[in-house]
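WARN  no MSA supplied for this record, continuing single-sequence
INFO  ligand: threonylcarbamoyladenylate
INFO  echoing inputs
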Amino acid sequence: MQTIIGKDFNEAKILLQRNEVVGIPTETVYGLAANALNTEAVLKIFTVKERPHFDPLIVHTHSIAEIEKYVSDFPAKARLLLEKFSPGPLTVLLKKKMLIPDLVTSGLDTVAIRIPRQQLTLQLLQQLDFPLAAPSANPFGYISPTSAAHVYDQLNGKIPYILDGGVESTIVGFENDQVIVYRLGGLSLEELESVADNVIVMTNESSNPKAPGLLKSHYAPKTSFRIVDKSELSQMHEHNNFAMICFNECFPEIEKERQYLLSEKGDLDEAAKNLFAVMRQLDQLKLNEIVAIKFPDEGLGKAINDRLRRAAAGH
Ligand code: TXA
Ligand code: MG
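INFO  complex generated
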């Protein structure tokens, strides 16, 4: 099965209506979602996640009125808390109606239920006529994923679609009077600099104790990988079995089939989102080499170049 990362709301909806499992973003972690009212769909979650059946799932829905459909008892305090903190990171345990399959609650008579705040997922829930059962989108015992790329890393090939709710956050620290950027993500350097002066980028440290997940070779593919300059393209040899990652245009010096565009419409945000998926895809082709052309060094292009440098650093 090919796992696709995308923002296509309708694709996610159609797959869920077909009782497939889809990765969805929430304001806490990504969830591994399926139709909570359908036992066959819920069973797939347990299989993909390799989760023991005795560990119950959280049911996600879009309103308090919806919750009423699935619970047989709604204490005033539960309503009070939900009115105050939902949508948001609060899950309540309430007596379930028969409508909720026993598999979801592992045989318990309560169901865990919450209204997530993430906009894309909230909209999705509003458009479906069933709630979504979803545990965190990691294999049982692994770290909960906070980006579509994490979900992809952990569950590639096991689910058809991951609804992408955004890139990872930008991580900054503070030393003396400086703002130190350890990871470039959703918030661009320009945005930081518009508020703070003395911003220093330290995303290339070979070991980075402040953010250990960001080690230089963290994003390295297995295939040999390097960044190339436009001027080098004419020397790339046709008999060398390589592929090239590009932004929005193909280069005439190189055969078209070798070039993988991350965003045909030239959208750096889209390119950032496709980067990991394309790198994974190419890494499976048994190529001699993957090369990438440097991206425009602005906005999310900086984050892409940072990931490319990390990928190259492992080789
Ligand atoms: O933020 C979150 O809660 C994320 C997002 C995706 O919503 N979900 C999440 O699900 O972390 P999960 O399955 O990784 O953790 C849910 C926990 C489990 O430890 C489960 O045992 C517990 O909630 N749980 C579920 N239903 C329960 C119930 N009826 N009674 C007691 N505990 C329950
Ligand atoms: Mg979990």
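The pocket of threonylcarbamoyladenylate (ligand 1) is lined by residues 26, 28-29, 31, 55-58, 89, 91, 93, 105, 108, 110-112, 134-136 (CB under 6 Å).
INFO  checksum written, moving to next record
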